[in-house]
């Protein structure tokens, strides 16, 4: 029976330059491997040690990258190790099988959204009407499934985020603030549902997960064991639950520690 490792990517396994959180003297900083280039510029990194650990993980378990990124954004990433058979994109809206979205899975997700929550157009209209142009830099939708804003975080009114969360809650949506992005995501659109589908197809008897944000909470709860780093929305809220390991490391060091923990757990079975 395979072991599934479903892990968030950004700020869990891979990190932008701004999120690295390097605290040691420059001469002792870890060597970094760039795993994403966008518009000819390096964008995301992990340590070289983490790259080796991820390669080992891919040889010993079914590694399933699990991200809120769109398919196009995910496909910019060049992770070390074996090419994943499965990947979860758009927060569970797309289940990739050998790099191609499974049409039946996507159709089932769209049907759930139509039945269980307010339409994307209503949320888009609310964001456009209430978000202040002083701190909004971009309005975006992802895969026609959810919406997000890119903001100037230092100018953002925290009260507005709270008000948006309350408004969204009543319409079957959830709000997540991650770095410079504010996500509005339908509640039925979950990483956990897609992970369960992979487990069903593969007959996995153990599921492990890792993530840092509110949008990862359902994934961590659905797994047999889960890990979260010392940064991110979940850490800021001191969020935990049975089976969840809260790690003290922050930044790129946390990604390395998470991979060590995953491998240790797999090898101790």
Written description of the protein model:
- With about 270 residues, the protein is an alpha/beta fold.
- Helices cover about 35% and strands about 25% of the residues.
- It contains 9 helices and 14 strands.
- The strands form 4 sheets. It has a 5-stranded parallel sheet with strand order 4-1-12-13-14, sandwiched between helices. A 4-stranded antiparallel sheet has the order 8-9-11-10.
- A hairpin with a 2-residue loop joins strand 10 and strand 11 (about 180-185).
- Helix 1 (about 50-60) packs parallel to helix 9 (about 250-265).
- It is globular, with a radius of gyration of 18 Å.
- The model has no long low-confidence stretch (mean pLDDT about 95).
Topology:
Blueprint: E1 3-7, E2 32-38, E3 41-47, H1 48-60, E4 62-65, H2 71-74, E5 86-89, E6 94-97, E7 100-101, H3 103-116, H4 120-130, E8 136-142, E9 146-151, H5 158-169, E10 173-178, E11 181-186, H6 191-202, E12 206-210, H7 217-222, E13 225-228, H8 233-236, E14 244-246, H9 252-267
Parallel strand pairs: 1-4, 1-12, 12-13, 13-14
Antiparallel strand pairs: 2-3, 5-6, 6-7, 8-9, 9-11, 10-11
Mean pLDDT: 96
The main sheet orders its strands as: 4-1-12-13-14
Beta-strand percentage?
A: 25-35%
First-residue to last-residue Cα separation: 12 Å
Put simply, the count of helices is 9
Give the strand tally. 14
Rg, Cα atoms, Å? 18 Å
Helix content: 25-40%
The major sheet is characterized as: 5 strands, parallel
The ordered string of helix (H) and strand (E) elements is EEEHEHEEEHHEEHEEHEHEHEH
Tell me the structural class.
alpha/beta
Uncertain runs: none
């Amino acid at each position: 029976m395979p072991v599934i490792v479903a892990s968030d990517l950004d700020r869990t396994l891979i990190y932008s330059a701004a999120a690295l959180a390097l605290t040691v003297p420059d001469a002792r900083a870890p060597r970094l491997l760039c795993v994403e280039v966008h518009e000819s510029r390096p964008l995301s990194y992990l340590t070289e040690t983490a790259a080796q650990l991820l390669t080992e993980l891919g040889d010993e378990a079914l590694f399933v990258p699990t991200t809120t990124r769109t398919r196009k954004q995910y496909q910019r990433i060049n992770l070390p190790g074996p090419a994943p058979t499965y990947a979860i994109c758009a927060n569970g809206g797309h289940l990739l099988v050998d790099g191609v979205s499974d049409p039946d899975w996507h159709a089932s997700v769209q049907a759930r959204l139509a039945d269980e929550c307010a339409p994307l157009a209503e949320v888009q209209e609310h964001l456009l009407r209430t978000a202040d142009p002083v701190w909004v830099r971009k309005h975006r939708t992802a895969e026609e499934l959810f919406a997000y804003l890119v903001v100037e975080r230092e100018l953002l009114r925290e009260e507005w985020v709270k008000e948006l969360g309350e408004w969204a809650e009543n319409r079957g949506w959830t709000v997540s603030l991650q770095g410079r992005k504010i996500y509005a995501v339908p509640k039925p659109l979950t990483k956990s549902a897609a992970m369960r589908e992979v487990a069903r197809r593969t007959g996995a008897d153990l599921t492990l997960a890792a993530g840092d944000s509110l949008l990862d909470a359902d994934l961590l709860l659905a797994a047999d064991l889960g890990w979260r780093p010392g940064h991110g929305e979940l850490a800021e809220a001191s969020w935990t639950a049975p089976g969840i390991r809260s790690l003290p490391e922050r930044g790129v060091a946390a990604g390395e520690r998470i991979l060590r923990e995953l491998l240790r757990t797999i090898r101790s079975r």
